[in-house]
Design brief:
The chain is mainly alpha-helical. It has helices at about 1-30, 30-65, 75-110, 110-145. The protein is built from 4 helices and no strands.
């Protein structure tokens, strides 16, 4: 249950940010306000993502090495979930340690064009993680039924 709730929180947060907050911010806010909103939203969301990643890794590996007996007993759907999940973690680490840090510096110094340029680089990473998250969720739901 913890594994599923952590996945829902992470992927659901990305879905909300990308599909609802982004278009609303683009429609209603000036660029300087928009980049400040995003930097603040990420400041609140990203610590939760780190917690969700920790919970996903801990519960996933506990199940894999405890109940299932290790990597050699991983079924195809679990291999897919495992690989996609690790790819999502790598993408998030790049987002956090690379782009988010640069966004925060640009916002703090009032460099709105610089912050907007960083946001333009963040969007495809977020879109990729959203797509991967939806795929891994579908695999997690359908996989056990497929065998």
């Amino acid at each position: 249950a913890v594994h599923g709730m952590a996945a829902v929180a992470w992927v659901g947060g990305i879905f909300f940010a990308y599909m609802a907050l982004r278009p609303a911010a683009n429609k209603t806010l000036e660029p300087a306000d928009r980049v400040r909103l995003w930097q603040s939203a990420y400041t609140h969301f990203f610590p939760w993502v780190w917690l969700m990643i920790a919970l996903l890794l801990a519960t996933g590996y506990a199940d894999l090495f405890g109940r299932l007996g290790g990597l050699s007993n991983e079924t195809m759907y679990l291999k897919l979930m495992h690989g996609i999940g690790l790819l999502m973690v790598v993408a998030f680490a790049y987002l956090y340690f690379g782009l988010y840090r640069r966004l925060s510096v640009a916002v703090a110094t009032g460099d709105t064009p610089g912050a907007a340029a960083v946001m333009a680089k963040m969007r495809p990473v977020m879109a990729t993680n959203l797509t991967l998250g939806l795929i891994v969720t579908a695999i997690g739901i359908a996989g056990p039924a497929l065998g």
